[in-house]
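Standup, Tuesday
Yesterday: got the pipeline producing structure tokens again.
Today: sanity-check two examples.
Blockers: none.

Example 1:
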Amino acid sequence: PRATSVFPSRFVCRCEPLGAFVFSVICPLLRSSSLFLQAAAIPENWLTAYQLLHFVAGLQPASTPSSACFSSSPPSSATATADSLNSSEHGERQTDACPFVCAGASGRRLPIRSVLIHAAASGVGTALVQLCRLLAIPTIIASAGSDEKLQLCKTLGATHLINHRAVEGRFSEAVKNATHGLGVDLLLDPVGASFMQENAQSCALDASWVLYGALGGVRVPSFDLQLLFAKRIRLLSSTLRSQDLSYRESLVRSFEETILPKLADSSLRVILDSIYTASEADQAHQRLEKNENRGKVVLTFPCPS
């Protein structure tokens, strides 16, 4: 409904409701049939990642004027590109070269010098790592459950790697080591309950903590709220599925203008873990449930006759 600029033979991109399989997803800039599988992985994962950074956390590229802090609208652009995508240490760059978020009514700019991304080898996680690299965040810390997954994250732009299984979930010390004891300015978490305490300890002063999943449970038996108060942490939560149509239209329009061209020219990469036919859907779900995937799992459907 309310589709615009769609004509016969024009490729389109669709994000299905909860519980549906996306089986026919085509993008305006992905005109080769060989790229349809990559296109199928874009709507849910990449739109979610883009939304978390720019519409929920409110990241603005370093080049954005200060007046943007006083705007109530989501950022219309995320076009900042990194002139250097190396593994600079936390704090080496001047803060005015970093993306930023705006703090409260005062509009104070808070530089994002470091980010911790949990489940960084997932479909959303691999998109987040690349988008943070694109924004030139100096320190990108990837957290995952195996060294193989972490090596993938490194190829995508992560500067520091944490195997949370190897440290038995106590990752905050490694985060502090990577940030010279400061903690991260931005934390992106789909895990939830089991990581709450360590997440709070990993945050820097005035950090933004975005909670967008509950893979580790929804109930927290014990959590010290004083850490949130003492560090002035912004705890944010969101899900794309419950947003209204106007929000989704704004998100898709911004994403199409700024990110789709970079996916089309391979500046950004859609990471496909595995491809299953529709009759193998059970196997695909089992792979996801066992947390074996690195990137997106895609199902293919036969063309209707």
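Example 2:
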Amino acid sequence: MDFKIGGTRDTVTALQLDVKEPVETRILSAALKLAKAGRNVILDEMEMKLERGFVPRSQPKMSAPAVEVVKFDASRKRDLIGPGGVVLRQLEDRYSVSIDLTQEGRCLLYGEDRGLVKKARSTVMDLVADVQEGEIYEGTIVELKDFGAVVELLRNKEALLHVSELTDESEVKDHPEGIAGFVRDNLKVGQTIDVQCIGVDPIQGSIKVSRKAALRRRKAA
């Protein structure tokens, strides 16, 4: 029998009973009496601490596990789980954390290393964030095209950087190998660059970015 009981000195406010076979009433009655006595012992200790001027810790003990919470749109839960749970497992392995996801859109992260837990929180926030038009992002080039490049933003979102948004057209036209040659000479897979989002297709979700626009913003700042 698994019998959990919670309440005040005089009232039971919650209980949970798990049994595999019928339980006699006298056993339940005895359990309720024992639970009340146990609650009173705990409440006595709590009241004594408060009377002595108990002050909660301003900071948890260094040995206490770290906990972080991220709220997100519940429809983005699949982005955190990934195909077959691969994204969730990678997060837990990379940052040595345990992750719980709720149906309401809360991500709970637990770990022994506070620094790693905070890094995990930052990664989760990127994974569930939406790319906003007009914002500047640090992107990673993941693929080169004859007409530009595919840039990864916020760890899991791909955007198109067309060569016309990379630099002035005159530089491209003057290249001896044309557009494709210019792209190969100026962009490399794995390279990180700042880009500005210049458009998000509301239907298909495709994203367009500009290197030129980001550089202009940086210079004007």
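Quick observation on example 2: The two ends are 67 Å apart (CA to CA). The chain has a mean pLDDT of 87.
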